[in-house]
Amino acid sequence: MNDENKVLIFDTTLRDGEQAPGASMNEKEKLEIAFALERLKVDIIEAGFPVISKGDFDSVKAVAENIKDSIVCGLARCVKKDIDAAADSLKSANRKRIHVFLATSKIHMQHKLKKTPDEILQMAIEAVAYARNRVEDVEFSAEDASRSEKEFLYRVIEAVIKAGATTVNIPDTVGYGMPIEYGKLIADIKSNVSNINKAIISVHCHDDLGVAVANSLAAVRNGARQVECTINGIGERAGNASMEEIVMALRTRQDVYGCTTNIHTPDVCRVSRLVSKYTGFAVAPNKAIVGANAFRHEAGIHQDGMLKERSTYEIMRPEDVGFMETGLVLGKHSGRHALKDRLKGLGIELNDQELDKAFNRFKDIADKKKHVFDEDLLVIVEDDTKAFERTWELVSLKSISGTKIKTKVDVVLKSKGKIFKKSSTGDGPVDACYKAIDSITKNKGELLDYSIQSVTQGQDAMGEVTVKVKIDGKSVIAHGTSTDILEASAKAYINAVNKVISQQSTLKK
Ligand code: KIV
Ligand code: ZN
Predict the structure, then answer these.
(1) Domain of 108, in residue numbers
(2) How many domains does the chain have?
(3) Which of 115, 237, 405, 445 allows an S-S link to 119, with CB 3.0 to 4.6 Å?
(4) How far is CA 46 from the centre of its chain?
């Protein structure tokens, strides 16, 4: 298959994805996701909107300094200060792109920008030319393209390509387009823009009417060769087109699209999990490709068919996206070597020090839990996230609670080698425990959200607690896991405190 049929994957999880209300991530989390995207072989990583804040600038800079294979991209409006911020943040990138955008629909030009079409055209040309002076690879997005007048859109696209744009993006910004008309829009651009062969046509679809993936695929069918998307489909409002769905649709239905991507699909589920963890957005069990039920067959007729011949009810193999069937893997008699081997099978390679830590945690879990599943191993490894410093650690917990007695929890924490103890009462064990942690760490946390999910099935399954906590005016999302749900709750809250301390010390530096 030649390169004309390669669809480039432009991941905007760290930019549009982060615009999802409540999805903000810190620099270290973004960097960890960027590494995961690079391993996934994403072609372009949109790392942020550098002019927006110092935090955004620093995150794009950190991604630019560390990512070597994927192109790192920064977003900018069509104004010099935005383009300069993007170029400065990308300075040390091995491969870099500036992405400028400007609305071309009447409704946006009149009401939002208060500019005439000619003024917009001029701004677009000047911005692209200015960006081209700073980097070779410039993308132009005609914001709200799907609601723009076609003749004007053609003029703008032709002019920005002439000014040096190497990719032209046709966003369905408000998720208004329908597959049949959006596909035709791409076909019309191909046949009405004289210099279109000098640029790659990109698409960027939002999911307000639930057709972002269908629109993106219709665009590919009509000649688009870059798709902008996010892991788990997160993004502004109803989100963006989901990367995993686009990639697997192109792969599974090559007969329809005749296109390939560079994505290393066995990493898909791991990246999905990482994004879910750092944004705090759980993946719905019925979500295509990465949902917990995506490959589970419940109906007897289906199970019977599967046993006779998998292809009766299975159009993709779970292993193609790194989806794990819950299978017994290790137990308390398994050694360090067995753990290392199993992790390797899951695509996780640890150095000796990391393996020691993971092995100690594995032993703790295996002591409490008869069967240790692949999902447990992933949690054990992820527990040692590098995203923040562990200033406070849980040493022990004791709780007395019941239906007619006042709940009391004793908490023992450790920090910098010192032990701290506190007993608190409260409205249930979690409340009492969080009060004790607040008192020891001298914080006043406001619990905004709390959820618990079982990592695997069975009564002895580990529970994963996710909390959203506001401390010192800053909201953070953190997780904790254990076979004991109060312990998991305490760990999640302590991790939230640690995250805030980590962020404060980064800001002071
Ligand atoms: O939805 C949109 O139009 C965007 C642009 C910045 C590409 O996110
Ligand atoms: Zn968008």
Answers:
(1) 3-279
(2) 4
(3) 115
(4) 12
Q: Mapped to the 3 state alphabet, what secondary structure does 99-137 carry?
A: EEEEECCHHHHHHHHCCCHHHHHHHHHHHHHHHHHHCCC
Q: Between 248 and 340, whose confidence is greater?
A: 248
Q: Which residues pair with 231 in a beta bridge?
A: none
Instruction: Name the DSSP class of 265.
Output: G
User: What's the confidence (pLDDT) of residue 410?
Assistant: 96
Q: Find out whether the beta carbon of 143 lies less than 6 Å from any atom of ligand 1.
A: yes
The residues near 269 (Cβ < 8 Å, ≥ 6 apart) are: 290, 321, 322, 323, 324
Gap between the terminal Cα atoms of the chain: 50
Looking at the structure, do residues 300 and 272 belong to the same domain, yes or no? no
Q: State the average pLDDT over residues 450-463.
A: 82
Please calculate the CA angle 448-60-272 and round it to the nearest 5 degrees: 55
Ligand 1 atom 1: residue of nearest CA: 173
Please state the atom number of ligand 1 nearest to the C-alpha of residue 19. Answer: 8
CA dist., res. 60 & res. 46, Å (int): 8
Q: How far apart are CA 494 and CA 435, in angstroms?
A: 11
Q: How far, in Å, from the CA of 274 to the mean position of ligand 1?
A: 24
Q: Is residue 285 part of a domain?
A: no
- Chain-wide mean pLDDT for the chain? 92
Same domain, 87 and 142: yes
Six token digits for residue 50: 């550098």
Judge if the beta carbon of residue 202 lies within 6 A of ligand 1.
no
Question: Among residues of the chain, what percentage have pLDDT more than 70?
Answer: 96
Share of the chain above pLDDT 90, in %: 70
Q: Are residues 340 and 485 in the same domain?
A: no
- What is the residue with the minimal CA distance to atom 8 of ligand 1? 16
Q: Is 412 left (phi over 0), alpha (psi -120 to 50) or beta?
A: beta
Pair 205, 264 in one domain: yes
Pick 335 or 440 by higher pLDDT.
440
Q: Is the pLDDT score of 323 beyond 60?
A: yes
Ligand 1 atom with least separation from CA of 145? 3
367 and 405 share a domain? no
How close is the Cα of 170 to the center of ligand 1, in Å? 9
At 286-295, the pLDDT tens digits run 999 999 889 8
Return the bridge partners of 97, or none. Answer: 73
Extract the tokens encoding 140. 């132009």
